Amino acid sequence: MCLLIVIGEKQMPGEKSDESSAQTHSTDQVQVRPEFDCNFVVLFRGEASTTEEDEYVAEFQNVGLQAIHIPVLTFEYKNLEQLEVYLQNSDRLSAIIFTSPRCVNAVEKALKNETKTKILKKMSEKFLFCVGVKTAKILEERLGLKSSLGEDQKLIGSKQDLSNYLIQHFSDKLKLPVFIPCSSLTDRSLVDTLETNHLQAISLHVYETLPDPNLAINIEKVLKNRGERIALYVFYSPSGVDSVLSNIDSFITHQDKYIAIGKTTAEHLIKRNRQVWCVSEKPTAKSLLQAVLKRFLE
Length: 298
Known about the structure:
It comes from Dinothrombium tinctorium. This is Uroporphyrinogen-III synthase. Belongs to the uroporphyrinogen-III synthase family. GO terms for molecular function: uroporphyrinogen-III synthase activity. InterPro entries: 4pyrrol_syn_uPrphyn_synt_sf, 4pyrrol_synth_uPrphyn_synth, UROS/Hem4. With 298 residues, the protein is an alpha/beta fold. The chain folds into 2 domains: 26-72 and 212-297, Rossmann fold; 75-210, Rossmann fold (3-Layer(aba) Sandwich). The protein has 11 helices and 13 strands. The strands form 3 sheets. A 5-stranded parallel sheet has the order 5-4-11-12-13, with helices on both faces. α9 links the parallel β11 (230-235) and β12. The model is unreliable at 1-34 (pLDDT under 50).
């Protein structure tokens, strides 16, 4: 294996370090020698590169591992007039749940200039829940609204986390329906869990998830001339898995690895007959890097 990772390597008393033979890159308490020449990471994530994607690339580059982002999906927004009606009448709702940054984008697109301030004020008086720290951050940046979860937001990395949290902490506070703008690909798990626990929920599809039109071309550019390097494929969502797999079959080697962000994506990879090499529990760059380094140590 073309990799040597050292955790917590300490210098003995009186021992001199040999910087020339043990040059390292570090992340938290993990030190990784730059012997990644036989590996590289392919990040099959979302839309065209943003600051957030750059953070993933930077985390791997910090330990000497090349990472390449290939845009997988595009998004088309829909039912924005219906969405605006729900938001205008948010006094009839207990809460609004944002399951992804795209849901925040949809709300931003639905708001008209002449009514935006009034609607945002009404929304601010409701419980606002987000799946993921990134979604909460975008909610505040784009709409000036804060998640109602406060410091506990960092505990909510999936829809299941959120439903469990709401049932435990908010069941007696959500007397009116909970409104969930979501993707057309979203399953009913969140709605069903809430309703099973006697909480009313209304969902509205506000965007379509579509494959990036340049996906096949970009995959070929990256994988066709990689030589004998081993690819670590990182998938962020089930829809990303479906979009990518049919395009990479002709480039896969038996040594390539499949990495999932979250359990739902991991389960979907398994359904598609792919062996999951490791899973990042949280949708963050640091969590992903830690999962990869831990797996290399095993």
